[in-house]
Amino acid sequence: MEDIDVLRSELIATVNGAADLKALEEARITALGKKGRITQLMKGLGAMEPEARKAAGARLNAVKDAVAEAIEARKGDLAGAAIDARLMGERVDVTLPVRPGQDGRIHPISQTIDEVVAIFGEMGFVVAEGPDIEDDWHNFTALNIPPEHPARQEHDTFYLPGVGADGGRMVLRTHTSPVQIRTMKGTQPPIRIICPGRTYRCDSDATHSPMFHQVEGLVVDEATHMGHLKGCLIEFCRAYFGVDDLPVRFRPSYFPFTEPSAEVDIGCTREGGQFRIGRGDDWLEILGCGMVNAVVLENCGIDSSRYQGFAFGMGLERIAMLKYGIPDLRTFFESDLRWLRHYGFAALDVPSLVGGLNP
Ligand code: PHE
User: Fold this and answer.
1) Which of 91, 176, 237, 351 is deepest in the core (most CB within 10 A)?
2) pLDDT tens across 216-267, in order?
């Protein structure tokens, strides 16, 4: 029988030297295929004396395992190298100048976020962010929505497999409100934040998309009251829609995490089939708000006998559709370049209150 150690190093050297997956397959057939060298030697075992057969069989099996292992390792290396080569080949040079007539556009959702941030930024709010995948406690329980609360059903929650650190289920956040919770748990008042971001609900039609965007706001301080909430939101509506005398009204409502709660309507007209935002005889709901429920403050370790706050939340697609006359929600997420060319914004015109929100 040929020297098994020599055979072993020879076969492994061929495997390691295989330049691509095709050469590796050939090396595998030479060693382990039906007529491969190890296979042939295995076949020869039958003619040996029992004692010798046992020893040679064990050694051959060890060589077979070593070669199989080397093949798997080489396969991994070659696959990694193939991906690297492909990534290099497909690399995009982002510093290249724009081709004439091919300039990119800012998506209306990005533009709307920038506008909202510009307005609240001017009032002293800072942007806060949180994870899209939340645990049950941050998304519901801490916000005074206990397990049996009917508000949970209204949220059409996407549940994920597994459990979170709190032992509850993991969810795709159904609103941006868990960012309030994370901020209040992580910092002591005064707090003044807005949280724009993606949110998810299991619902899809002309006015609902399973992924959409909200912006949430939160203020917590010692003397914060409903007057601050009203002043701040009236100012926001007028600045965002660019109508100085825009009528704004607060209607009593209910949210588990605020008390009292309100919904905010802005004035509009629908005269002659034409929709227009501004002074008129009709109203349109655009956001929800209220004074932060004392239970929520306490859940986050904030002393509710000393601090109070207000919060608000709104859908970004909705306010973008209203301002820019975009009729169908689904088109936001279709990545149609013709749509983006029509509704998109110039890249360098960053919204600001001084330079204009949408120059
Ligand atoms: N989180 C609420 C929603 O998604 C919106 C909201 C936020 C209402 C803050 C009041 C205060 O419906």
Assistant:
1) 176
2) 999 999 999 999 999 999 999 999 999 999 999 999 999 999 999 999 999 9
> Structural domain tally of the chain?
2
User: How remote is the CA of residue 51 from the centroid of ligand 1, in Å?
Assistant: 80
Domain assignment present for residue 116? The answer is: yes
Are the beta carbons of 246 and 266 closer than 8 angstroms?
yes
> Residue 132 is part of a domain; what is its CATH number?
3.30.930.10
Residue nearest to atom 10 of ligand 1 (CA): 289
Residues in contact with ligand 1 (CB, 6 Å cut-off): 175, 177, 216, 255, 258, 288-290, 311-313
Tell me the residue range of the domain where 56 lies: 4-89
Residue 354 domain-assigned (yes or no): no
Contact 67, 5 (CB under 8 A): no
Among candidate residues 147, 167, 142, the one with its CA nearest the CA of residue 157? 147
What pLDDT is recorded for position 1? 52
Distance 244 CA to ligand 1 centre (A): 26
Q: Specify if 140 maps to a domain.
A: yes
Residues 6+ apart with CB under 8 A from 281: 269
Residues 276, 219 within the same domain: yes
Same domain, 59 and 123: no
167 Cα: distance to centroid of ligand 1 (angstroms): 25
214 CA → ligand 1 middle, Å? 9
Q: Could you tell which of 116, 149, 214 is best to mutate to test the pocket of ligand 1, judged by most ligand atoms within 8 Å of the CB?
A: 214
The pLDDT of residue 125: 97
